Amino acid sequence: MPFTEPFPEPFAEPFAGPFTPGQPRASTGLKRRPGDYAARMTSPAATPAYRRLSVEERRTQLLDAALSLFAHRAPEDVSLDDVAEAAGVSRPLVYRYFPGGKQQLYEAALRSAADELELCFAQPQTGPLTERLTHALDRYLAFVDEHDAGFSALLQGGSVAETSRTTAIVDEVRRAAAEQILLHLGVESPGARLRMMVRTWIAAVEAASLIWLDEEKQPPLPELRDWLVDHLVALLTATAATDPQAAAVVRAALALEPADGPAGLLARRVLPVLAEAAHLL
Question: For 6, left (φ over 0), alpha (ψ -120 to 50), or beta?
């Protein structure tokens, strides 16, 4: 059954001491005039700045507070008191929305973060492939940068808050990311090699993100992003050498790439290196 939060109690006037039946009540020193109570209750200066939140608004507020804490601390280092303080509410109110305690709150916050991560790779399927990947990685790496400690705890595991449900949420993000990349490649029924290539790249992006955090966020994000785009181009090209489906994807993708785009720049950097292998031909 939906519930609402109570209004703050009205302001009470000063207590003037015990009251004995048969005796006049001691004066509080306040002079009442007709309408004083109504005026006091409706006066903007006396009315507390309080707005009742809907159930969904309050739940969102609590999740945002939890995410901000989980972003920079491992789950086991965050208490419900911390969440309540960050949200500016009482601990019982947090329990009212999350009766399962911190574990339920953590899983709900994780689900919210997972939804945000899944959207990172959702990009309109128009324009050069490398341009789309660049935009997707910009959003993904911005999330990693903002939620550094929480991202590490999430992907590295070992947290006391980790359960089969939290693991399933993380796996779902990986699957969703792989599906989005396959859509960008324009493949409806990918073969085993192409699927493996995409999943390998997703794993490489995760690993590189964790290493980047461990290396005190070096190199700069734009360099990391461009390097990861190059990785996908290289993986796709290597797969195309033995897989006709991947070869068709490469031909279609290169047809849309500008000479000054990431693929063109990578080709110009790689060709001199490959020239050293001419004796192997």
Answer: beta
Helices (H), the chain: 36-42, 55-70, 80-87, 91-97, 102-120, 129-146, 148-156, 164-184, 192-214, 221-240, 244-254, 262-275
Q: What CATH number is given to the structural domain containing 161? A: 1.10.357.10
pLDDT tens column, 85-105? 999 999 999 999 999 998 899
| Contacts of 144-147 spanning 24+ positions with Cβ under 8 A | 144/209, 144/212, 144/213, 145/217, 145/221, 146/71, 147/67, 147/70, 147/71, 147/72, 147/113
Considering the domain boundaries, does residue 144 fall inside one? yes
Residue 102: both structure tokens together: 């911190």
Asked, for residue 147, whether it belongs to a domain, the answer is yes
As given in the structure block, the two tokens for residue 183 are 């859509």
**Domain-embedded: residue 96:** no
- Whether the pLDDT of residue 28 is over 80: the answer is no
Assess if residue 185 is contained within a domain: yes
Packing angle of the helix pair 192-214, 164-184 (nearest 10 deg)? 120
Domain ranges, residue 215: 113-257
Map tokens 């739940």 to a residue: 59
**Structural domain count of the chain:** 1
Tokens of 114: 């997972």
Tell me the C-alpha to C-alpha distance, in Å, between residue 277 and each of 38, 96, 271: 90, 67, 10
Contact yes or no for 58/50 (Cβ under 8 A): no
Q: CA 123, 129, 132, 134 torsion: positive or negative?
A: positive
User: Which one, of 5, 12, 8, lies nearest residue 40 by Cα?
Assistant: 12
pLDDT digits (tens, 9 = 90+) for 169-186: 889 989 999 999 999 999
What is the predicted pLDDT for the residue at 44?
45
